[in-house]
């Protein structure tokens, strides 16, 4: 099963990268007020069991993929499986 | 000078793939009276007689994912963690500091500089406490000049953690007024653990031990560590 993990800066955490992108978009003439830049991680898992996949992905996020001090994560399983 | 003062304490300098300040750290420690040993990151144990550990600067594992996030899984980190839990002295410089925060040995996190630019220059620093093994040679009223060179040195902690660290006096090293090079919260440049034996800092003391390079203030920090390591080595004998 291929799952996707989205890692985002927590709300309220300064995101200088997002600010820089936001400024550049405004420079291009787009009317944007805020941009936040996160990270998308595709993971190919051995299991096809949605429950097991979610449990493993959560452990991956807690142990490595996200830093809980500054980031939040979201797990997206393939269509048909409920997502977090 | 007594025998034990003359003895050179053994300091393990851990080398990760991508470390690049390990040799400067070893040279500086040697100048300051220690006996440094390079320890490759796959080592399961620290050399016998290790009195202190230094995690040097660099770009371990290419800084992939987050700085220090991969290095903390190196086998040697288990040995370093056990050493620290026993009260052993551990110093993390720049990338070493990032590794120690990722490993949970030091509080907070180091984020990309607020400017998004790599900074490489001398900065003025103030030392808040001289009663730590890393600052005994410093003076509270004397500004230190030590270079920084990093892209991700913006130390951050949430409000609750920051309050705890302020109260416990763990924010030992700060950028002087107007000298914050990276947007670090509360001007934090270096943090001590609660037990007082693990310290991490973004500036590079190993690059400031020779007058030829403009400052010898780094020697005050590394020299403090060497003094403390010598005492702890003597206690082990």
In round numbers, the mean pLDDT of chain B is: 95
Q: How many domains comprise the coordinates of chain B? A: 1
User: What ranges of chain A have pLDDT less than 50 throughout 5 or more consecutive residues?
Assistant: none
Portion in beta strands of chain A: 15-25%
Figure out the total of helices of chain B.
6
Any idea of the CATH topology of chain B? Rossmann fold
**For the largest beta sheet of chain B, what order do the strands appear in spatially?**
2-1-3-4-11-10-9-6-7
Helix content of chain A: 25-40%
Q: How many individual domains of chain A?
A: 1
Oligomer: heterodimer
DSSP helix fraction of chain B: 25-40%
CATH class of chain B: Alpha Beta
Structure, briefly:
The complex is a heterodimer of chains A (84) and B (237). Chain A is 33% helix and 24% strand. With 84 residues, chain A is an alpha+beta fold.
Write the layout of secondary structure elements.
The complex is a heterodimer of chains A (84) and B (237).
Chain A lengths: L1 E8 L6 H12 L11 E6 L5 H16 L5 E6 L8
Chain B lengths: L2 H4 L3 E6 L6 H10 L3 E6 L9 E6 L19 H11 L3 E5 L1 H8 L6 E3 L7 E9 L16 E7 L3 E3 L2 H10 L4 E3 L12 E5 L5 E4 L16 H19 L1
Parallel strand pairs in B: 1-2, 1-3, 3-4, 4-11
Antiparallel strand pairs in B: 5-8, 6-7, 6-9, 9-10, 10-11
Explained architecture:
Chain A has 84 residues and is an alpha+beta fold. Chain A has one domain (2-76): Mth169, Chain: A, CATH 3.30.1280. Chain A has two helices and three strands; from the N terminus they run E-H-E-H-E. Chain A has a three-stranded antiparallel sheet with strand order 2-1-3, with helices on one face. Chain A is elongated and about 45 Å long. The mean pLDDT of chain A is 92. By secondary structure, chain B is α/β, with parallel strands linked by helices. In chain B, the strands form two sheets. In chain B, strands 2-1-3-4-11-10-9-6-7 form a nine-stranded mixed sheet, with helices on both faces. In chain B, strand 3 (50-55), helix 3 (75-85) and strand 4 (89-93) form a beta-alpha-beta unit. Helices cover 26% and strands 24% of the residues of chain B. Chain B has helices at 3-6, 22-31, 75-85, 95-102, 159-168, 218-236; strands at residues 10-15, 35-40, 50-55, 89-93, 109-111, 119-127, 144-150, 154-156, 173-175, 188-192, 198-201. Chain B has a single domain (3-236), classed as Class I glutamine amidotransferase (GATase) domain (Rossmann fold, 3-Layer(aba) Sandwich). The chains are: A alpha+beta (84), B alpha/beta (237). Chains A and B meet through helix 1 of A and loops of B.
